[in-house]
Amino acid sequence: MNDDVIIPPMTQMNVETKVIFNTPACERRTERQHTGDDNVWATEAHEAVRGVLVARTLLPNRACKVPVQLFNVTDRPVTVRGATVLGNLERLHAFSAQSNTPLRQEAPADAEKRIVDEVMAKVDPSVPDEFKTKLRQLLMRYSSVFSKDELDLGFTDLVTHRIDTGDARPVR
Questions:
Q1: How many other C-beta atoms are found inside a 10 Å radius of the C-beta of residue 165?
Q2: Is 152 among the domain residues?
Q3: Residue 151, class by beta-carbon neighbours within 10 Å (0-12 exposed, 13-18 middle, 19+ buried)?
Q4: Does residue 135 sit within a domain?
Q5: Are 94 and 38 in contact (CB under 8 A)?
Q6: What's the predicted TM-score (pTM) here?
Q7: In a domain, 54, yes or no
């Protein structure tokens, strides 16, 4: 982190960090951009400073402005100083479990059809065919709203909500 960050009580937040190598992080990344390095890095879950946890997170393939998720689990704001080392990185190796070839991206239309087929396979056999046909058409019309895999879930700040926990404190 470059600057101090204040994390409100019982809050999670992403903070921009930099990876420190033996050479300055941004210079090292520039050198490595052309090497074809397929390594993936992750943080380990641990307590970085008293009351602040670092989440286990896969990191983007860069050394600067790396988002790390922090959790303040205390009932008071916690200041994390800019020079704080938040943890060590663990090297993971990306590969396909099916072959040694690079992972192939599925075409969007194929992914949408696959998702609809998976949903339709779970429809009770007693449902009449005409309803199944209408359901399939409805699912195909709105197939763009379905998550294609665990990596395409997004984030929005257009809507906010509250969960009334009564007298109980929220978990996060």
A1: 9
A2: no
A3: exposed
A4: yes
A5: yes
A6: 0.46
A7: yes
DSSP helix/strand/coil, 48 = strand
Give the neighbor-by-neighbor strand order of the sheet with 52-54. Answer: 11-17, 66-72, 52-54, 46-49
Domain span at residue 45 reads 5-93
Provide the number of structural domains found in the chain: 2
Copy the structure tokens of residue 149.
């895999």
| Angle of the 129-141 helix axis to the 108-121 helix axis, nearest 10 | 150
C-alpha span between 30 and 62 (Å, rounded): 9
Tokens of 116: 């609809």
Give the span between the Cα atoms of 57 and 161, in whole angstroms.
Answer: 25
CATH assignment of the domain containing 48: 2.70.40
Q: Is residue 123 part of a domain?
A: yes
Nearest to 58 by CA among 106, 99, 94: 94
Asked if residue 40 and residue 113 are part of one domain, the reply reads no
Q: What would the pLDDT profile of 55-70 be if each residue is shown by its tens digit?
A: 887 877 777 888 889 9
pLDDT tens for each residue of 25-34: 444 444 444 3
Tokens read off for 125: 């056999």
Contacts of residue 157, defined as CB under 8 A and 6 or more positions apart, other chains included, come to: none
**Distance (Å, rounded) from C-alpha 129 to C-alpha 51?**
57
134 in the same domain as 89: no
Same domain for 18 and 64, yes or no, is: yes
Distance of CA 53 to the CA centre of its chain: 16
